[in-house]
Amino acid sequence: MTYSGEVTVGGPADVRELKDLMITKIAVGPMDNNAYLLRCRATDEQLLIDAANDAHTLLGMIGDDGIASVVTTHRHADHWQALAEVVEATGARTHAGREDAEGIPVPTDVLVDDGDTIRVGQVELTARRLVGHTPGSIVLIYDDPHGHPHVFTGDCLFPGGVGNTHNDPKAFASLIHDVETKIFDVLPDETWVYPGHGKDTTLGAERPHLPEWHERGW
User: Per the record, which residues fall in region Disordered (predicted)?
Assistant: First the structure.
């Protein structure tokens, strides 16, 4: 089956098989949150991005192999509702952006700064801090040596715009600056975007609309 990235709450996960990494996407909870399970194909080590909700479903997706790590993209509650239960069940190490960790009611084992590397088995992910949706939101970039990059954007970038900055002009200016300089300016159009809610997109699909986003201010 070809990966589409279109998932619904209560429906099946969608799986993307890259040469070195498997990406499983599932939707959970009343806010249609996406959670992503990354599995290194060389070692079978797994990492979960956003234990958002419905620990039973997430643990079923994780399976008996467990996870070594769980990364929370930002402090908003809809992205960590199942974190405590998932960590208790798996013993996974927790990662979160340094500036957001205090807002997550599960202890953070690894405070993540801009440019840090997070590993899942032999696969390296680069964390970038994007300020505006929250002070310490992080995105994870996997630069596939066999193909195009993949970026897990939390609530910082979606099809059609950046994340919610609650009508705060300074927060919007900060977020769109970081999205442009740390994502659009350094990654190619083929880069696949995996957001915290809803459908996936590519940088190429979104890039022509950046001037519109600036003009509307959200």
Answer: 199-218
